Fold:
Amino acid sequence: MTETGIGTGRSTPATLHDVAREAGVSLATASRSLNGSTRKVNDEYRQRVLAAAARLDYSPNLSAQAVARGTTTTVALLVADIADPYFSSIAAGVVAEADQERLIVTMAATERDPERELELVRTLRGQRPRVMILAGSRPTSDPTEGALGEELAAYERSGGRVVLISRNEFDFRTVIVENTAGADALARELVGIGYRRFAVITGGEGLRTAADRVDGFRAGLAAAGGTLDDEHVVRAAFTRDGGYDGMRQLIESGLDGIELVFAANDVMAVGALSAVRDAGLVPGTDVAVAGFDDIPTVRDVTPALTTVRVPLEELGRRALRLALGDESASSEGAVRTEVVLRASTPARIA
Amino acid sequence: MTETGIGTGRSTPATLHDVAREAGVSLATASRSLNGSTRKVNDEYRQRVLAAAARLDYSPNLSAQAVARGTTTTVALLVADIADPYFSSIAAGVVAEADQERLIVTMAATERDPERELELVRTLRGQRPRVMILAGSRPTSDPTEGALGEELAAYERSGGRVVLISRNEFDFRTVIVENTAGADALARELVGIGYRRFAVITGGEGLRTAADRVDGFRAGLAAAGGTLDDEHVVRAAFTRDGGYDGMRQLIESGLDGIELVFAANDVMAVGALSAVRDAGLVPGTDVAVAGFDDIPTVRDVTPALTTVRVPLEELGRRALRLALGDESASSEGAVRTEVVLRASTPARIA
DNA sequence: CTGTTAGCGCATTCAC
DNA sequence: GTGAATGCGCTAACAG
Structure:
């Protein structure tokens, strides 16, 4: 078929120079035909160049373009854990939006390690990405926090745009999620359908997102008339297994009249559900469970999980739009959340 | 704090040139101190350069390095859907391994569209990635298949390495998963615990992975003595909703004595489980369900899902190692799978 | 060891 | 419109 005459052995990719020669035009003309702002080059030449490029299977070297132009088409995305549905949904949103803008996204995982996060930001900066999106909060008072802030600030000073998703440690553009208000609303609704005595499973010390959700939940309870004793707030890893462990702790200490356990996110809640079951109890009946996020799988667990819906993929899309200066994205305010009552919290006959 | 003296306004990132000047050495020396193969530069100078770099908050421009070196540190990863746990687990593996090798991974989603996949491969080639990993099979006889093959071949000719994960359309390095053998083993075990009449929910026409699994399942059944009528093989989208729909179809046509439904992957199986429940039946009791992959969530659904375990994250890691020429990765052969019997397929008293 | 110089692939000024 | 020349940030010979 279309052989380039280069033979079948190893070779180097065709360069713009090759294309120009093949088309019998200058480098500049080739460049303009292939990329330069439209309508500047004779259509005759243009066609010749296009044909030559196709014949040579030319693919523009993005790195070279970046160097010459002084700007890239890259978006860097930092998440805690790619396999976590919360983050993978966000990532899917970022990638989808980036694709529309013909941007390429590079992805890295911090594995919830603040030092690692800082390290990654430094590395990723080398790419000179147009945008840097960070999702997943870190402990509020981590020693490296200042350094991260400096690093991000420096990045912005050099023309980059950083966007945070649901974290409020710094003063950068942020896709704000109604964590507090959402949890508050959830608490009220739960009290409304008859629950009174609550427990909470939350993330590690100082995790902002978790803290906000717990605070909101507490506020809602206070307003509506539910009770949450301090000894019924257990800390655990912000993961499925953390949720499992947290629930097991609660159960081992006798449950103590607790009617409903609120886990600060869905993956934890799902783990909690399994812990209930493994303890020989019936989730929803013996103890109700609620989560936060509405990740895809919560529809398929049994009982289906009551949660606060967060449009995860939209978070990712919004983050990128915000970075790109889309006015509508910034004027939309916080991302709305919505309480979704399901079978894991059946109405209680008070 | 450490101000660079550049002021607070917008500025351009410090260049190696700046660092050299600041340190009072030549460009070459600066380059060598910061990157060049170790032990070549006077430690005195080296320190000066390092200090200057820190002071200027220097970050090497990866694009420029790529152009100068003629090689990048990029890995391109192509998956069907980032939010799908199957792919996000694989991605997590690729990213983890890449990180160890100090490689950066760029990610894109084909959304199961062959044309889109081809388009993405073309775009990604512009990055001159060292490696290109494609996961998620496409229909066996898609019109663009030839073009994709050509494109990938051209990429390899120019020095790149392509690795396929669990797809066997082409003749590139591949991380082979025991799809057929795994399903075969599953079928035998299922017959072994008393099941006889089966149904299957599989993916769209010609999806290789799905086809292999179904073939294997059929073979196992044939060998062990189970029955699978052709009208009990239903096709659906290779997604959670596809699984749901497939199961609903089966139920609507009366189930017809079917004791167990095998879904070609776990996300479908999970959807199927929900369909059973929504139809007012009890999964595991009224009809058993089994899947394939062992994605994280199947432990948390009820009943827990019987499946064939595939080390998803390891798939991703292996793919990268294979691309990088790791001998052990290529000599390990196909990735082993393992049948995991759980509550969704309780033993039947024959 | 260190500095000078010539590219790497491409965009873009500047003359023609 | 088109081409020649310059430069982007960096590496890698090449001489000292």
Residues 208-224 of chain B form the longest helix (17 residues). Residues 25-29, 32, 40-42, 45, 64, 66-70 of chain B lie near DNA strand C (CB under 10 Å from a C1'). Chain B has a mean pLDDT of 93.
